Amino acid sequence: MQKQKQKHAKQITVDICLMMSHKER
């Protein structure tokens, strides 16, 4: 369960990074 939660958190971070990249363009 802990592993899955960590994976999900990482996915959210990636999503935020992608969104930030799009905003910068």
Q: How much helix is in the residues?
A: over 70%
Low-confidence stretches: none
Proportion of residues in β-strands: under 5%
Query: Termini separation (Å)?
Result: 37 Å
Task: State the oligomer.
Answer: single chain
Would you tell me the structural class of the helices and strands? Answer: mainly alpha
Q: What does this protein look like?
A:
With about 25 residues, the protein is an all-alpha fold. The protein has one domain. The chain has one helix and no strands. The protein has one helix at about 1-25. The mean pLDDT is about 85.
Question: Topology of this protein?
Answer:
Blueprint: H1 2-24
Considering the chains and any ligands shown, give keywords for the structure.
25 residues, mainly alpha, 0% strand
TL;DR?
By secondary structure, the protein is mostly helical.
